[in-house]
Amino acid sequence: MSVTSTPPTDLLYRQDPELAEILLGEATRQSTTLQLSAAENFTSRAVLAALGSPLANKYAEGYPGARFHGGCEIVDVAERVAVRRAERLFGAEHANVQSHSGSSAVLAAYAALLRPGDTVLAMGLPFGGHLTHGSPANFSGRWFDFAGYGVEAESGLIDYDQVLALARTRRPKAIVCGSISYPRHIDYPLFRAVADEVGAYLVADAAHPMGLVAGGAAPSPVPYADVVCATTHKVLRGPRGGMILCGRDLAERIDRAVFPFTQSGAQMHTVAAKAVAFGEAATAAYQAYARQVVVNAKTLAAALAAEGLTVVTGGTDTHLLVVDPAPFGVDGRVARGRLAAAGMVLDTCALPHDDARGLRLGTAALTTQGMRETEMPRIAALLAAVLREERIMVRAREEVRELAGGFPPYPV
Ligand SMILES: Cc1ncc(COP(=O)(O)O)c(C=O)c1O
């Protein structure tokens, strides 16, 4: 079978062909479709090696040098390396690398800083806030009193006047800045000034831009926020997981909020894989990748606008962009379905000016595959042709397969 297979599937094939087929099927799906989701990427083989290593067998509750379990002397070193690399990469006084996910990191940040019932100001979900920013379906909305700021309907930019006005009237204990779909840089100094005026903590949920920050391609929230939460996947291209950065003053509270308050055993194979990803992110090659991610996103935004899609905020500063397919007579949900049939994988998201859903796209995975400015107009033209129903679907799928085939994520 000709697939860009990464996992050592031979052994799995002999023991469990049913699961091996599933793994190979997913590897084939990833290498023959276009991963336009702003939240996804292809990790290196080195990251996958750490994830599939015997560290997966190790129980390690606690922190290096102070574990509940025996036999932690080796994994302690792995965690110390991961922490040191994260602190150096982001210029932070303290890093906690144990959070199992971005949501767990946010939960721990709230646990460290807040009490149930406290008021928190965050981007409202209809404007691009994450579930952990006050959704009634999430612990955040259930346990805290969230006030939501939004974006201006016309420009799609954060309504900083509203942030200030809400902060003054609601007197939040914490202000959260960060979003699942905001394509522009966030004004961290301004959020810091608002937080200082009302005596609130500033929590930056930088899950999306943190990979750009690591590569010097986006401003860092670290000098401004009391606590920075992030995922280690997405643009950062590490394993699925979370991390928290903070100053020395909050280090102990953050560590205790992660363990023992919200988690017990750390996943040491993931912690080791995070260390590998941080090591990769400290290289010049990674900086070039981060810059290219942004160049590709800007090029894709301009090309989609030229094809007639409405690009929210008129473009992007980052890896992600939001478009409204309404000019093509479809909403985001219908558009996503059509594009999926053609092998173009992306997500829907909120639109600032409408109740209908838009489309969220990102360029991190494409860039990791080696695509550059030349490929972006081709992708935009294909996407528009599929939405206009100009292309027979089978033909569009073939074109996507051919394009993706030229940039295998795991070349053999
Ligand atoms: C802003 C933001 N916060 C938190 C998360 C949660 O990350 P995870 O899915 O790893 O829990 C995400 C992920 O989409 C996110 O975009």
Automatic annotation (TrEMBL):
Query: What enzyme class is recorded for this protein?
Result: transferase
Necessary cofactors: pyridoxal 5'-phosphate
Residue numbers binding (6S)-5,6,7,8-tetrahydrofolate: 125, 129-131
Site: Plays an important role in substrate specificity. Where? 233
State which pathway it belongs to. Answer: One-carbon metabolism; tetrahydrofolate interconversion; Amino-acid biosynthesis; glycine biosynthesis; glycine from L-serine: step 1/1
Is Amino-acid biosynthesis among this UniProt entry's keywords?
yes
Molecular-function annotations in GO = glycine hydroxymethyltransferase activity; protein homodimerization activity; pyridoxal phosphate binding
Q: What is this protein called?
A: Serine hydroxymethyltransferase
